[in-house]
Inverse folding.
């Protein structure tokens, strides 16, 4: 089957029975009602159909399933917690694929506090990894809104980022080794907990961010870090994005490696949050055009970072970079501030929904990007409601203009490509990326083909053909061959 998802053919009944036999009764779902939740994305309305969902509980079962599919030419859609945002883990509509869910690969295989690593299977939920690390006095720093349901295999396959990339990096920085079932059913055992290994190509990097198009990640060795013993959170009002990026520079010079998160939030989305999502209150008496949410963490005594943070904020105020600042008085108040940040996507939904963009540009160009994108969209759609928030410390913005209230679903579908092109032309002109942390999947596939050079696309296709010559691994996602 071609990776372009061309003409589909029905999966032979005999092949479906072989797949069922490989995993046994608890390992498959064939009732349409049971299958349906696996075929629909949780937010972006990608919906497909498959005759079978397979839920193996070991690497050996995954390999056996893939061998059968390779022999029969059956396309596979690998799926983790189904929390993705680009349609990468949803099947197409033609019943020519099967879903292979990693949800039963749930073991934590090892935790090494001397090497500071944890070895986990792909179906372990992110929050469970965080808890296991915490119980051992360590930190696994990946943190994002879906951490209670997303699985680490999906985090790896999408190169997830989250709020602490500024200090710890994204999944590419957090993975030391992988175990992967290849498209022919072979198993690559790369579960090495090494920080230095200069023996040729770093093969694990092929599968991190590949969204299941080159193989199925079944286990990983992840980096752990010392658990912070001191932390402070601040909510800061600023006039404009340029003040925020200048503030970032000042905070880094003052706080150094203690800076772990630096989020920029537009006032408009805070207003929609307060109006449309219960359980939140404005942290400040006065509204400000933009806000910055900062976390600083370290290994000192509890409270030891409060004075350095207060002094840094005082210096920022004296320099005219901030209008007001609030340092959380307790862990509970800090949690409330972060809950506001995590609830911003809900706020956009409550306001009627948005045209989401997950972009990155150099940090220094964040203000220019926002100004140019705002102006371009305003010119094309007078009165459009601007909405933006994101991990500005690493150059990543979720630039999500809200749909005009009068637009129905048909109008939204019609205008979305034009809005994407307006935003992404500016991103690319500034040397940025049209997908910073959410991946490509199906929703950004055409855009990627538009902006990537022929040389880059050719290199991606060459890798795909080399590892998946039959085109059975998640076809029609990330790259078309």
């Amino acid at each position: 089957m071609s990776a372009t998802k061309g003409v589909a053919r029905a999966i032979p009944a005999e092949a479906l029975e072989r797949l069922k036999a490989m995993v046994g009764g608890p390992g498959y779902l064939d009732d349409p009602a049971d299958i349906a939740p696996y075929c629909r994305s949780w937010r972006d309305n990608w919906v497909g159909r498959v005759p079978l969902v397979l839920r193996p509980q070991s690497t050996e079962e995954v390999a056996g399933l893939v061998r059968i599919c390779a022999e029969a030419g059956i396309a596979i859609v690998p799926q983790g917690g189904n929390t993705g945002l680009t349609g990468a883990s949803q099947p197409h509509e033609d019943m020519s694929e099967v879903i292979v869910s990693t949800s039963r690969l749930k073991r934590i295989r090892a935790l090494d506090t001397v090497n500071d690593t944890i070895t986990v299977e792909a179906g372990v939920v992110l929050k469970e990894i965080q808890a296991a690390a915490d119980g051992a006095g360590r930190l696994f720093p990946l943190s994002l809104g879906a951490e209670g349901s997303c699985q680490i295999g999906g985090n790896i396959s999408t190169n997830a980022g989250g709020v602490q990339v500024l200090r710890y990096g994204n999944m590419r920085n957090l993975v030391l080794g992988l175990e992967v079932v290849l498209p022919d059913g072979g198993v690559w055992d790369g579960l090495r907990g090494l920080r230095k290994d200069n023996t040729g190509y770093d093969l694990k990097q092929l599968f991190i961010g590949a969204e299941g198009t080159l193989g199925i990640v079944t286990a990983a060795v992840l980096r752990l870090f010392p658990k912070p013993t001191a932390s402070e959170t601040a909510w800061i009002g600023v006039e404009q994005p340029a003040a925020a990026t200048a503030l970032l520079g000042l905070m880094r010079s003052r706080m150094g490696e203690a800076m772990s998160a630096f989020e920029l939030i537009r006032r408009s989305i805070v207003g929609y949050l307060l109006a449309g999502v219960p359980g939140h209150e404005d942290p400040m008496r006065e509204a400000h055009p933009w806000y910055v949410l900062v976390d600083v963490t370290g290994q000192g005594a509890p409270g030891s970072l409060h004075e350095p943070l207060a002094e840094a904020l005082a210096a920022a105020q004296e320099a005219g970079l901030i209008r007001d600042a609030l340092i959380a008085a307790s862990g509970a108040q800090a949690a409330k501030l972060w809950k506001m940040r995590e609830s911003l996507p809900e706020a956009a939904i409550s306001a009627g929904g948005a045209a989401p963009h997950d972009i990155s540009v150099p940090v220094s160009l964040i203000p220019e990007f926002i100004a140019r994108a705002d102006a371009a969209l305003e010119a094309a759609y007078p009165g459009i409601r601007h909405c933006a928030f994101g991990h500005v410390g690493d150059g990543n913005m979720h630039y999500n203009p809200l749909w005009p209230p009068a637009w129905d679903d048909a109008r939204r579908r019609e205008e979305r490509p034009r809005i994407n092109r307006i935003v992404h032309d500016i991103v690319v002109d500034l040397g940025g990326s049209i997908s910073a942390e959410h991946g490509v999947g199906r929703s950004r596939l055409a855009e990627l083909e538009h902006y990537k050079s022929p040389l880059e696309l050719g290199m991606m296709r060459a890798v795909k053909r080399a590892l998946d010559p039959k085109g059975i691994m998640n076809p029609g996602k990330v790259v078309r061959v």
